[in-house]
Every structure is written in structure tokens, then in C-alpha cells.
Amino acid sequence: TTLTTTQTRAATFVPRVRRPYTFTQLIQLSDGSTYTLRSTSPTPLVRSAKDSRNHALWQPTDKSLQNVEVDEAGKLAAFRQRFGRAFDLAEGPKDAEGGDAAKAGSGKDAAAAKNKDAAAAAAEDDAYDLGDLIGDYGASIDQNKLKSAKTFGKVKGAS
């Protein structure tokens, strides 16, 4: 058997275009106004859900945009379903106080009930307050026993 030798050739380098093709796009804002631009994206129409007319950063004085809990994607609801509403505890008593004060009556009775509820809420411990842990940390060691300790490695009676 004889081997036939065939000529092989590497692929020729074909230079690509340095500037990509740009398409004309129509951008439609939330209020219905449109403008055109050139983009590398081939989609002819882009509808913007958030833009400078309906975003709180662009319109800080608009009261309808002040709601922080806008949950368009459902992520806040999914978080609450998974972890509960423990993070909303700070907001819960405020609503309950207003309702209790309104039930108490009007005039001085309502004001007194409102002040009483506010004082009770202020006295109530915060769920995330760790000040008592920090304050009690060094209180268990008696300073006199530390001074009278004769060895550096051991402290008598401190535990």
C-alpha cells in the first residue's frame, strides 16, 4: 500500500468588521412618549418600565413614588413567606398604638391613651438591642480580686 500525500492548508484569516452594525431602536417611556436611537440590539421597540418620569431618584417630590415597599417582582413577598415578618416588628406597634388611642375616645382621653401607649412602646425592649449583653460583660469580675491576685496566670474567684 502506498501513502498518498495530500497538501493541507490552514484557514485563511478573515478580518472582522471593527464597527458592529447598529439598528434603529424606538424607546417608549412609561408616559407613552418615544424617541429613537441607534443600538447594537436588534429589537425594534423597547418599552421602559422605569425611567426618569416614574422613579423616586429623578422625581423626589412626587408623593406617589415615596412608597418604599413597591414589590413589582414579588421578591418582598417571597422573603416574608420564607422568613416571616419579624423584620417588620418596628412598624407593627405604631399601627396598633393609633388604633388603641382612637378606641379610647376623643379629646384628653385619647391624648392620654396615646401618651401611655407611646411610653409603653419606648420602655419595651427592642428585638435587636444588644446593649444589655455588652453592659453585663465586664460586671462579673471583681476588680479587688484582680488587684490582689498574686499570680499573673490565674485570677482567684473570677469566673
From TrEMBL:
It holds the Pfam family bL31_N. Residues 90-118 are annotated as: Disordered. GO terms for cellular component: mitochondrial large ribosomal subunit. GO terms for biological process: mitochondrial translation. Residues 17-60 form the Ribosomal protein bL31m N-terminal domain. InterPro entries: Ribosomal_bL31m, Ribosomal_bL31m_N. GO terms for molecular function: structural constituent of ribosome. Residues 99-118 have a biased composition (Low complexity). This is Ribosomal protein bL31m N-terminal domain-containing protein.
